[in-house]
Amino acid sequence: MILARHLLAAALVLSTPMATAPQTPPAQAPAAPAIEKGSTVHLEYTLKDDAGALLDTNKGQAPLTYTQGEEQILPGLEKELIGLHAGDEKKVAVKPEDGYGPVDPSAQTEVPKEMLPQSALTVGTRLMARNAVGEGRPVRVKEIKEQTVILDLNHPLAGRILLFEVKVLAVDPPKTPEPTPAEPKPVEPTPTK
After folding, report:
1. Does residue 79 sit in helix, strand or coil?
2. pLDDT in tens, 79-101
3. Are strands 89-94 and 162-172 parallel, antiparallel or unpaired?
């Protein structure tokens, strides 16, 4: 009988729910930042035209670094990168209107021949023209006349569909602006009686 009571007591103890400390889920590492306005983005890219010809790449070189939303890269490419994280890869086709624009037949200028070096006096020669403040602009020799040269001012990639293969190497979240010190409120005089 004593043995039966011990067995019954043991069975009751084993079947009684035990109070335990609440379980907390394991801490998760914060998610990697996504590309958003103000993010500093580091990219590896390859650029081809719609025929597949290689136009540019930075593979094996320093990454392209830009700030999202600051119009530092083509609008069509920038728009397609929103929401990507470090390690993501994407192929992007940028239409002319989201790249260097359509070809503008009126975007040309005529300059005296002596303004160009003799070696540049060949149709198709690409040059870098500088404006009054020193900003560079690529131009192409379109036509050579007796006394003048007609320069095509369209970007060399205007009117072309551009195919990018990008890999996001790193994303730095937007910097939070420094808080500005609060202006002290002027003290208003208290009316006296």
Report:
1. helix
2. 999 999 999 999 999 999 999 99
3. antiparallel
Backbone φ/ψ region at 137: left (φ over 0), alpha (ψ -120 to 50), beta: beta
**Token pair 């650029």: residue:** 47
Q: Which residue has the tokens 């003290």?
A: 187
- Residue type at 19? A
Contact 81, 66 (CB under 8 A): no
**Distinct helix (H) and strand (E) counts, the chain:** 2, 9
Q: Phi-psi region for residue 78, left (φ > 0), alpha (ψ -120 to 50) or beta?
A: alpha
Burial category of 191 from C-beta neighbours within 10 Å (exposed 0-12, middle 13-18, buried 19 and up): exposed
Task: State the residue for tokens 């303004």.
Answer: 115
β-bridge partners, 29: none
Provide the whole-model pTM: 0.68
Paired tokens of 57: 């790449």
Instruction: Name the one residue in this structure whose structure tokens are 């470090």.
Output: 86
Q: Please state, rounded to an integer, the average pLDDT across all residues of the chain.
A: 84
CA 174 from chain center: how many Å? 12
Q: Tell me the two tokens of residue 181.
A: 């010190």
The Cα–Cα gap between 102 and 9 comes to 88
Q: How many residues does the chain have?
A: 193
CA–CA gap between residue 147 and residue 163 (Å, rounded): 40
